[in-house]
Amino acid sequence: MGLPSPESVGLGGQRTVNGLTYQVVAGTQGQLAWDAVTTGTHGRRLEVLEAKGATADRPSTPSTGNPYFDTDLGIPLWYNGTNWVDATGATR
């Protein structure tokens, strides 16, 4: 199951997909966007720095497992060694 639209969840809302928690944040142009977060061993919230940008700007030589937040699609993707896939495993 993937993430719903950030607008349907609202600013500050969170969802967990594949063991990774995402929170709705204000994007660079005022739009709402998903951002990945995780909790450190002492319970402190740590930001996970992910590459993000337009579909056309995805890394051309990613490593297997690399995350990328596609701002055109509004969802996180992962490189499976062959394709960029969403949380359901569908090629995007």
Describe the structure.
This protein is mainly beta and 92 residues long. The chain has one domain (6-85). Helices cover 4% and strands 39% of the residues. It has one helix and eight strands; from the N terminus they run αββββββββ. The strands form two sheets. It has a four-stranded antiparallel beta sheet with strand order 1-2-3-4. A four-stranded mixed beta sheet has the order 5-6-7-8, with no helix packed on it. Strand 6 and strand 7 (75-79) form a beta hairpin. The protein is globular, with a radius of gyration of 13 Å. The model is unreliable at 41-47 (pLDDT under 50).
Average pLDDT, all residues = 76
Portion in helices: under 10%
Terminus-to-terminus distance: 14 Å
Unreliable spans: 41-47
Find the count of extended strands (DSSP E, 2+ residues). 8
- The total tally of domains equals 1
Write the layout of secondary structure elements.
Elements: H1 6-9, E1 14-17, E2 20-26, E3 32-39, E4 45-47, E5 51-53, E6 67-70, E7 75-79, E8 84-85
Parallel strand pairs: 5-6
Antiparallel strand pairs: 1-2, 2-3, 3-4, 6-7, 7-8
Keyword list:
single chain, 92 residues, mainly beta, four-stranded antiparallel β-sheet, four-stranded mixed β-sheet, 8 strands, globular
In short:
The protein has one domain. Helices cover 4% and strands 39% of the residues.
